[in-house]
Design goal:
The protein is mainly α and 182 residues long. Helix content is 79%, strand content 0%. The chain is elongated, with a radius of gyration of 18 Å. Keywords: DNA-binding, Sigma factor, Transcription, Transcription regulation.
Length: 182
């Protein structure tokens, strides 16, 4: 079902629940994996995905349709991830590097995320990136999202996103090269 059809059904109180269920079915997996790449832990990703859809439910009737529905949902998911990671750092008084190391340890321990050695090194390198660079890298590399759409999701200029992605790629390459030599 197309987004505009879902939104039309959502406006009618009689079909609101059905429309929302269709929206969740359409985007739940994409949102979950977007969140999971940022927070790594399945339980955290599951909770955040649920929080995202609660926010979508609360605010969908005010959605102005000046962006694509998918982009709007991704923006909510992105903000939830960044707030969660920021809160986690504050709560545990962890510097950025410690959070990356903690998430990297979770990757090694999680059979659902474990891949071959190269994929594991890539994941560890990505987790060492600052949150916003990791977000940009994931959106571009895994989701193959165009910079213009990323700009809508993140509220950042296309030029800044390209620079951020470039820096992220360099850091990932340096990490993989450095660890391959060990």
């Amino acid at each position: 079902m197309e987004d505009h059809e879902i939104l039309l059904k959502f406006q009618d109180p009689a079909s609101r629940n059905l429309a929302f269920n269709q929206l969740v079915r359409k985007y739940q997996s994409k949102v979950y994996w977007h969140v999971r790449k940022m927070v790594v832990d399945h339980d955290d990703a599951d909770d955040l995905t649920q929080d995202v859809f609660i926010k979508v439910w609360k605010h969908l009737e005010n959605f102005r349709q000046d962006a694509q529905l998918f982009t709007w949902i991704y923006r909510i998911a992105t903000n939830e991830c960044l707030n969660f990671l920021s809160s986690k750092r504050r709560k545990f008084l962890l510097p950025l590097t410690d959070v990356g190391a903690e998430l990297a340890a979770k990757i090694e321990a999680d059979p659902a995320l474990a891949g071959d050695e190269i994929e594991l090194k890539l994941q560890q390198a990505i987790l060492r990136l600052p949150d916003k660079q990791r977000l940009v890298f994931n959106l571009r590399y895994y989701d193959e999202m165009p910079y213009e759409q990323m700009a809508e999701v993140t509220g950042t200029s296309v030029g800044a996103l390209k620079a951020s992605y470039h820096h992220a790629v360099k850091k990932v390459e340096e990490y993989v090269t450095r660890t391959a030599a060990d």
